[in-house]
Amino acid sequence: MPGIGQIHPARHPRPASGPGRLVLLKLLLVISAISYCAAAAERANIAILFPQVASTHARIYEEIMHGVSEHALTNTSTFAVTAETRPQDISAWLNKTAAQAILVLGQRSFRLVQELDTDMPMVVGAVVAPADSYPTLSLSGDPDMFFSHLKSLAPRVKRVFIVYSEASSGWLVRLAEISARKHGLELVARPAETIREAVLHYRSVLETAHSDSDAIWLPMDRVAPDKTILPMALDAAWKRRLVVFCSNPLYVKRGALFALYPDHRKMGSTLADMALEQIGNITLDGARPTRTLKLAVNQRTASHLGLHYPPDQERTFDLVYPGPR
Questions:
Q1: Are 103 and 113 in contact (CB under 8 A)?
Q2: How far is CA 291 from the centre of its chain?
Q3: What is the pLDDT of residues 180-192, one digit of tens each?
């Protein structure tokens, strides 16, 4: 009989060996394969069309596609659209993919897809203007988020000016009018169909806007090209102490107070969700602005405008200009 206090090793069953162990390993492999196939079967096959472009813009599409492929419920295949791509090339590729939905990125891809004879569910992304008859996630940010950040970063502002073209931003301005009322802001929207018209509107706004209480919103729009309007707007805004906000962090680097710009990887995840909804016969209407946004702030401009932010607020900024020396 063992003495008190003696410790005895626990007895464990001996691992299977020989033929028994081989059978066990095979069984585990079969179970793993079945589990993998079941998981794969639950995923939707999404075909992604994207334009082959210069490296500066290629990163945008790469990030969006990463966001789609990282989605837990998607399998993706991609097709690079070039200047030589024909609609029949896309049709032939789609026939090989077993795709359940098409995700179309960029204006060039969308133009080609419109010529396809297909009833496959389709979602459009990485465009500014809405794609007629198709659910679209625009690169333009949600006005509600712009106005929320405006109230936080420049609380004295009461009125916002925007110059826009109906084709590019009419849908966004209509959303902005609703959101402005919600935030207690007056939105002054001036439509322009040409750059010349837009320049005249901007000159008028910059001459009459009031310091501190007025702001200028530079949208993603074909009548607001940076080479023509941005230098004029930023120079006048600095002299007149006007808030300028936009969708491009490079504009912030040059003097705009803040920008809300897309988080492209998260945008890809949203597009994947939209494609899955289409596959599930959930109706998606028209265009929606993106809400997965990052924030860039110019602290030098803020200081010039008499605006100062506590450390806890600064920690919410994704980009800060000027950068550390």
A1: no
A2: 7
A3: 999 999 999 999 9
